[in-house]
Design goal:
Length: about 475
């Protein structure tokens, strides 16, 4: 099951491109606004210069003609040539009085800007500032030529320009995002192959390899991936071979230990029982009070021999090669039911034929079942354990596989159970055996109780026969 957390890379990169594009548009809009304000300042400064020179010429003409009745100031000629919407032109005397003033009307088709934009624009640019030039006559200033633009007109024009840029942004940004997303989707398409390859490796398919890619970066990733897959496959092969050898050595040591216990410890216990029986006969005739001690020695020796038989059975199970896996497992279940006297209850369900299994598969599956039943009965405190073994025939002549399932109703929350099942050598040993067979193992602890063990082991084609179901 795939579990890819986090957001889509294409979407994330597209959003970042959109944010960068929006920022660029904002910077461009700011630049245009500043440039427009600079142009307006230059224009009103030039108008102020023209007005001041015109008024100086008028004053010089009055003085040259010596005609004090000539009208001054006369800004009609200047206003006629430079007047624009919102532009205001005036002459201000040294006393501050406005002698003459002309203002162009505002355009009626310009929409009023939002209050927030108007406040921001006025804060940044101060559109009502005046351009002032002194008017000189005979070396003295007789007044000032004053030029300014109505702030409302400048703000409306700025909003109109900004609105056009925003319209361009609204059209261009979605198109840009679509193109970027499509380009990223095409460029990142090889990452799907990389993800599939990683999923195959995670699922145990070490034959997964990546093809070469056009992009150098992705091609380097593919080369490293293929090298790691090859090395992992080699390491796993070496580990499986070593595990097989260790399992063989372990089984050999178990057989040797079982032989030593049977030959030495078993014979000693048999001798103790014989001596206890002989001492009992003597005690009957000569010392009746010793009968209880002789009987106690005999019972202790008998109990020890029963314990020894159980240990020998676990150390040296029946010969699976001779009895077969199915018969060996049925005997194992019968032995557990006999020793536990119905608590817990062990059940076995077999489906298929296991007569022609390789010896290594049969022996390892037997050991896996033996370990699992021991954990369920002794550590989890289960009252019911069900063992299911199924031979799954492969279609079209492929390899078959054996499916092993063990379910119990024990207590997985028990600390002792956790030690044995979750982190103990029992589950670790089972995993190693399954890995050596090239199979898969999974373990799930139920809530609030119960546990399930699943093992699937491949078997070479032709090892099985027609399915036959049997339950015990």
């Amino acid at each position: 099951m795939r579990n890819w957390s986090g957001s889509d890379l294409k979407l994330r990169l597209t959003l970042r491109v959109a944010a960068a594009a929006t920022l660029c548009f904002a910077v461009i809009s700011g630049y245009f606004l500043f440039d427009s304000d600079r142009a307006v300042r230059a224009r009103i400064a030039a108008v102020a210069d023209i007005a001041a020179r015109t008024l100086e010429l008028q004053q010089n003409k009055i003085q040259w003609l010596n005609n004090p009745h000539t009208e001054f100031p006369d800004l009609d000629s200047v206003a006629a040539s430079v007047m624009a919407p919102g532009l205001c032109l005036a002459f201000r005397s040294n006393g501050g009085e406005i002698s003459q003033r002309f203002c162009g009307g505002a355009q009626t088709d310009t929409a009023a800007p939002p209050l927030a934009f108007a406040a921001l624009y006025r804060r940044l640019f101060d559109p009502g500032r005046e351009a002032v030039r002194p008017v000189m006559a005979r070396g003295h200033a007789i007044g000032e030529a004053v030029v300014w633009v109505d702030p409302a007109v400048l703000t409306a024009e700025a909003w109109h320009d900004a609105g056009r840029l925003m319209a361009v942004l609204m059209i261009a940004l979605p198109l840009l995002c679509a193109l970027v997303y499509a380009a990223l989707a095409r460029a990142l398409r090889p990452t799907l192959l990389i993800r599939d390859g990683l999923e195959r490796i995670a699922a145990g398919d070490l034959a997964a390899r990546l093809p070469p890619f056009d992009l150098a970066e992705l091609s380097a990733i593919g080369d490293v991936f293929n090298q790691l897959a090859e090395r992992l496959a080699a390491a796993l092969s070496d580990r499986n071979a070593l595990t097989q050898k260790l399992i063989v050595v372990q089984d050999e040591e178990r057989r040797h230990l079982a032989r030593e216990l049977h030959d030495e410890f078993g014979q000693s216990l048999a001798a103790i029982r014989a001596l206890a029986a002989s001492a009992r006969l003597t005690a009957i005739q000569d010392c009746p009070p010793l009968l209880a001690e002789c009987d106690g020695i005999a019972r202790t020796a008998t109990d020890m021999m029963e314990t020894l038989r159980g240990a020998l059975f676990r150390l040296r199970p029946p010969d699976v090669d001779e009895l077969g896996l199915a018969a060996s497992l049925e005997g194992l279940i019968a032995g557990w039911n006999g020793r536990s006297r119905g608590q817990p209850r062990f059940e076995i369900v077999l489906s298929g034929s296991f007569a022609r299994l390789p010896a290594s598969v049969s022996a390892n599956l037997y050991r896996i079942v033996q370990e699992a039943l021991t954990n369920a009965a002794k550590h989890a405190g289960a009252t019911r354990v069900v063992l299911r073994l199924e031979m799954r025939e492969a279609p079209s002549g492929g390899d078959s596989e054996i499916a092993l399932a063990i379910d119990d109703d024990g207590r997985p929350g028990n600390p002792q159970s956790d030690l044995q099942v979750t982190s103990g050598m029992g589950l670790l040993g089972m995993r190693e055996r399954v890995a050596a067979l090239g199979g898969r193992l999974s373990f799930e602890a139920g809530q609030p109780h119960g546990a399930s063990l699943r093992v699937v082991v491949p078997v070479a084609a032709g090892a099985g026969a027609a399915p036959v179901e049997r339950a015990a």
